[in-house]
């Protein structure tokens, strides 16, 4: 673990080897903390911008919620059949 | 004692705050599992204060001014006592005979230490780079408080059980006594950081503001007191003399943005939530997958509302848990499968409710419905080509009988277990709703039992 930029600001120091410290004393029952939405402590205090990027970047993470129209033919046929039944 | 304080003195000489935080950790380091035990055994209650004082005075590493030496002496004596409680609790727990209030004792001892550090920092007795040991101590205080409350709740419910009380009577008694007390201590620390008037930013406690805010968020969320979290956000927002946000350590910023995002989400301010959560996502440490998962847990429902976007398979496939709970929902939204959507929502209901995203996700049903109606529109095909028109600029049929929508709707909900069948009037009402919400553009002609859609942009944002 490295200590980055300990010089200037009081906070710019890397965290210790505190691994999201569940106190050693009470490790027996599985900690229910996993259960809720508590944000975990990061193993580092600071990291440079370029290390924040996920591998693969942010492209292709989101897509449109509607289907592209290739299945539409099938649906159209089905719909027409249903409508025919209706008219009988 | 001299040996035990060696790491502290080395860190102090090098002005490494994290090294000092390590020296005051309640957890033994991996490479020296016996550290706490040795430290505790090196002295006793009668001699601890003298021995610490002497060890700090006569050392070759660091020169401590008398006032600072006195401060550290008090801190290490408090630390020594807390370690004693921790070791006793650990031993008792290993032997399966933990006393009823033993974890409370651990908490109380750690609280003494925490208060001592706060006092010394606010009196200006410690160097500014030692602020980091206040963070760490505070973080552990929170954890000890949670454990103590758990033990207290257990003891209380045992008592209540044997005396024949109902569970719900017990739960009305203050259940989070120690964590609430911790919240007050954290608030004091937060003010201590935020209110530092030292004009020299290099040594200002203001650098601790976001870290302390984050600890408070974690505590208030655990206490289910979101409104107090909002107060913190507001307090910080009106500060004019904080250093620029980008200059704070990334860990502080990402955590802060996550909580501000979730708080905005819970207030249904989805656009603010999206901005904050996206920022947290963009700067998150790649190996912290659990945190990424948490960010996405709120960002996914958020984007569904703000952008009508869904996560791609690529994104979901990296997070098996999210894949399991959101995957089916997303598939059904996309295909306009209403019964499937209802089932998927019901299947993960517990999880969604616990995460407070159920009601937001429920609104995704409109998107699924929009997609179903859109299909009806597409299935209607095109108007006959008029003179001069080409395939390229032909127009879709925009007058669609209500019956078509009703039929499609019944197909969409006809699946197993739906038990839904809608009257024609209800279908009409639903269409009116979609128009009202802006998901579909057009009007209903009751006279002709037709829906007349806009020629351009009948379903805004979907390319038709």
Summarize the structure.
Chain A has one helix at residues 72-87; one strand at 62-64.
Polypeptide structure, described:
The complex is a heterodimer of chains A (about 90) and B (about 475). Chain A is mainly alpha-helical. Chain A has a domain at about 1-20 and about 25-55. Helix content of chain A is about 20%, strand content about 5%. The longest helix of chain A has 16 residues, at about 70-85. Chain A is elongated and about 70 Å long. The N and C termini of chain A lie far apart (about 75 Å). Residues about 1-35 of chain A have low confidence and may be disordered. Chain B has helices at about 5-15, 15-25, 35-40, 50-55, 65-95, 100-120, 130-160, 165-170, 175-195, 210-220, 225-235, 250-265, 270-285, 290-305, 315, 320-335, 340-345, 350-355, 360, 365-380, 400-415, 425-435, and strands at about 310, 400, 440-445, 450-455. Helices cover about 65% and strands about 5% of the residues of chain B. Chain B is mainly α. Chain B is elongated and about 100 Å long. The N and C termini of chain B lie far apart (about 75 Å). Chain B has a three-stranded antiparallel sheet. Chain B folds into three domains: about 5-225; about 250-360, no CATH class; about 370-385 and about 395-455, Orthogonal Bundle (Arc Repressor Mutant, subunit A). Chain B contains 22 helices and four strands. Strand 1 (about 60-65) of chain A pairs antiparallel with strand 1 of chain B, so a sheet runs across the interface. Chain A: It is found in: Nucleus. Chain A: InterPro entries: DSS1_SEM1. Chain A: Keywords: Nucleus, Proteasome.
